[in-house]
Design a protein that fits this description.
- This protein has 10 helices and 5 strands.
- Helices cover 63% and strands 6% of the residues.
- It has one domain.
- By secondary structure, it is mainly alpha-helical.
Length: 279
């Protein structure tokens, strides 16, 4: 396993650069089944596949943030605190409690002995190609980057493949040298909290990296489709056109960026606090 140094940096680096490209922080509701009958045409099938991918990415990133909050709440229970607020507030309270306990609990300059191996998520190229082919309506599609046809299908393939990716569990261990301990009870609270919560936060870090990668492709498509929504709507008769235009606008306002970034930053803060020790 890799020797722990600054876990917060390791977790933060996996997705921070990728997150910035995702558009919108609004709360538009996307329903891939709202525009009845559009999938009878080639263009409509691709639009519907993109909307379904948007729904799935929306749900997956909401679950990611929820799991982050739950992990921090579990750690809070071990630390004997009861924080309130959103995910960022809860995880910040946990990080602050860890810092305070270590500041009082171990000697100045000492640190916990933490070793970890991050979780890893691998997206199957075959799954991506299969999803792209289904969207394009073809027998097969190339898995090479930049050759999966339309933007809608490229985004759909990236998202759907990420949802079926296999992730290895992380390894995490924390120990302390009794010789550097000043207050055993405080140190034991931190150790218990880390053992209960950090494996989940490491898993979240790996999934966040994967979703951020998929979201970069999705984001460009969402932006392009929203900008062309009126022209795209003209391909569909009557109310279907208005429905498509509305759904594409909603897709561009999904909270993907916010959820992923909150999860990463919260995880990073908690991990960083664990490695800080006393000043």
């Amino acid at each position: 396993m890799t020797k722990y140094n600054r876990l917060g940096v390791a977790l933060l680096s996996v997705v921070l650069a990728a997150c910035g490209a995702v558009p919108g922080v609004g709360g538009g509701k996307v329903d891939s089944n709202a525009c009845s009958g559009i999938d009878s045409s080639d263009a409509g099938r691709k639009i519907k596949a993109f909307l379904k991918a948007t729904e799935d990415l929306d749900k997956a990133t909401a679950e990611l943030e929820n799991n982050t909050r739950n992990a921090c709440m579990t750690m809070a229970g071990e630390l004997g605190i009861a924080p309130k607020g959103d995910t960022a507030a809860v995880c910040k309270a946990v990080a602050d409690a860890i810092r305070e306990n270590l500041k009082v609990g171990i000697k100045t300059g000492a640190k916990l002995d933490i070793q970890y191996k991050p979780a890893e998520c691998n997206v199957s190229a075959e799954a991506k190609a299969s999803a792209a082919a289904a969207c394009e309506g073809s027998a097969s599609a190339s898995s090479e980057s930049g050759s999966s046809g339309s933007g809608e299908c490229a985004a759909s393939a990236e998202v759907e493949a990420s949802l079926t990716a296999e992730c290895t569990p992380p390894e995490f261990d924390v120990k302390f040298d009794a010789g550097v301990v000043v207050d055993t009870s405080k140190v034991e609270k931190v150790v218990s909290a880390l053992k209960k919560g950090m494996p989940e936060l490491l898993s979240i870090g790996a999934k966040a990296k994967m979703f951020a990668s998929a979201a970069m492709v999705w984001a460009k498509t969402a932006k392009d489709l929203a900008a062309s929504a009126k022209d795209i709507a003209k391909q569909f008769a009557g109310k279907a056109g208005l429905c498509v235009s509305s759904q594409l606008a909603a897709a561009a306002s999904v909270n993907v960026e916010v959820r992923v970034e909150v999860s990463v930053q919260a995880s990073a803060e908690v991990g960083g606090a664990a490695g800080a020790g006393a000043d």
